[in-house]
Amino acid sequence: MSNSDQLKRADFIFKNENDWEDILKKNIKRSQQELINELISSELKGRGGAGFPTGLKWKLSAEAESDAKYVICNADEGEPGTFKDREILSLVPFKVLTAMAICGHVIGAKEGFIYLRGEYFFLKPRLNEAIHEFETYCKTIHVDFSIRIFMGSGAYICGEETALFESMEGKRGEPRNKPPYPALSGYMNKPTVINNVETLAHTYTIFKYGAKRFYDLGVQFSRGTKLFSVSGDTPKPGIYELELGMSLADFVNDFGDGDTKAVQVGGASGFLVPRKRFTETNIGFQGKLTGISLPTGGSMMLFNSSRSMFNVLDNYLEFFREESCGQCTPCRVGCQQLWRGIKAVKSGDKNAQYLDKLLRLAETMQLTSKCGLGQSVANSFSSIVENFREEMIY
Amino acid sequence: METVSELIKTLADQHGRNRQNLLPILQGVVEQEKYLSESSMIEIARELDIPASEVYGTATFYSFLSYKKMGRYIIRVCKTITCSMKGKNQVLLAIQDMLKIGIGETTPDGVFSLLQTNCLGFCHKAPTMLINSDVYTELTPEKVREILSGYLAKAKEGGDYEQ
């Protein structure tokens, strides 16, 4: 475990987009295997929150045999507290488009889609202009790859990759059973690479500077940099690119208002860390040697001592009960019951021991829900109830 | 303005008549009509040759595809935690006070609808709202009154806002 003394800031993602034509031209000439090896050796993991190795994802799709394959950029950023993907698409769209085309070259796909959340409709005209310019350049260097924007319509669950495919196929955004995984059977049941906006932007950095430059940043199991969306009780809310593996104490030192009592890492589906655990908690993916490590899609919400953690949990549960797709019972009923349950305890209709029943319900949801939404409700629920139990009761 | 059935035909010509074109078509109808009536959903089903229940089931899944008649300007105030922490309730009260409608309601003249929504992705600039697809951030009751006055003036110019 390497605890840094201070936060290591980086500036890759938002810098130097104007060399995209060179990056595309250079990398499109490299062999598929070479590009995959480069990605694998960088140890880049998906930046949407789940952290699947990106190189492996591309490799699996590249090896799959099919008449059609797709590259999808997941821009359905809906996790409370996350707003980095919008900034990438606004400020450096060509990095994302270039990465998609290189991915198309690697796996053998001619079509790409950007699934843009309905809330970001205002980005569409400028993004379409960028796509037009990009495709025009592709034609001049004989790269056969087209990109289209598919608009979401206000459903958090559509950020889940298989729900996103259903949505693109004209159906309700209900997650599918896995396996099969998207790399082999995704959109229209064809091999599909689906990556978060930020992940694609990082592949650009890797193809530009080489895997080693990226690998040398961060710590073991959590290589490279990550964009953090910082909000809540902080004097400097905004988006910051930091190396992975920092301790939460260092983070709070830099971004807190001096009175931080807890940080929610990873949004409503993430974990709440109380002050007493700041030092022992690191931000990054879990590994044998990294201690308590919390993965995150980048959402960092700070709460100071003026905040009621009951209100925070109430807000998260209201979010989940509205955004559950309703397909599987543990999630559909569980989200409702947890939400009602904490209100009943707070109002005195149920006694404090009822919280233990709710914790067991959350555990059941984690074990039995069909997709990440229902499975992750327990993260915030349990970490808030266990650490701030008295605030749930009185 | 085209009639709804003309619009549906145009959209189907433009996007295609496969199932995977359903969402863009629904979105196109909502953009013009501000909602999906039962008859337009049946019309879309006929155009794409799929059961109307499938169109209904899909449309009602998505929060931006309203199946209730909405106003010309749909105000969506973000209610997620950071916006709540930074004064969302005062902003909401200011809107309700100015337009004399509650959450989920539409002004009698059909100009504004007021809704709350989940995270808009501007937590660092909370509180936030969308009016149709335009984003307004770092709101205060004063600021929101100013913004709405602008829309009211615009609606009056358009001739369909009568108080």
Widest sheet, order of strands of chain A:
8-7-13-9-10
How far is it from the N-terminal to the C-terminal residue of chain A, by CA? 38 Å
Classified in CATH, the superfamily of the largest domain in chain A is NADH-ubiquinone oxidoreductase 51kDa subunit
When the domains of chain A are counted, the total is: 3
Most extensive interface: A-B, 50 and 37 residues
Enter the CATH topology name of the largest domain in chain B: Glutaredoxin
Radius of gyration of chain B: 17 Å
EC number (chain A): 1.12.1.2
Protein name (chain A): [NiFe] hydrogenase diaphorase moiety large subunit
Family (chain A): Belongs to the complex I 51 kDa subunit family.
Organism (chain A): Microbacter margulisiae
What report would you give on this structure?
Chain A: Belongs to the complex I 51 kDa subunit family. Chain A: Residues 310-355 form the NADH-ubiquinone oxidoreductase 51kDa subunit iron-sulphur binding domain. Chain A: Keywords: 4Fe-4S, Iron, Iron-sulfur, Metal-binding, Oxidoreductase. Chain A: It holds the Pfam family Complex1_51K. The complex is a heterodimer of chains A (394) and B (163). Helix content of chain A is 44%, strand content 16%. Chain A contains 15 helices and 13 strands. In chain A, strands 8-7-13-9-10 form a five-stranded mixed sheet. A four-stranded parallel sheet of chain A has the order 3-2-1-4, with helices on both faces. In chain A, helix 5 (93-107) crosses helix 8 and helix 12 packs parallel to helix 14 (372-387). Chain B is an alpha+beta fold and 163 residues long. Chain B folds into two domains: 4-61, no CATH class; 73-157, 3-Layer(aba) Sandwich (Glutaredoxin). Chain B is 47% helix and 11% strand. Chain B has helices at residues 4-15, 22-33, 38-48, 52-59, 81-85, 88-99, 141-157, and strands at 73-78, 112-117, 129-131, 134-136. Chain B has a four-stranded mixed sheet, with helices on one face. In chain B, strand 3 and strand 4 (134-136) form a beta hairpin. At the A-B interface, strand 7 and helix 11 of A face helix 2, helix 4 and helix 5 of B.
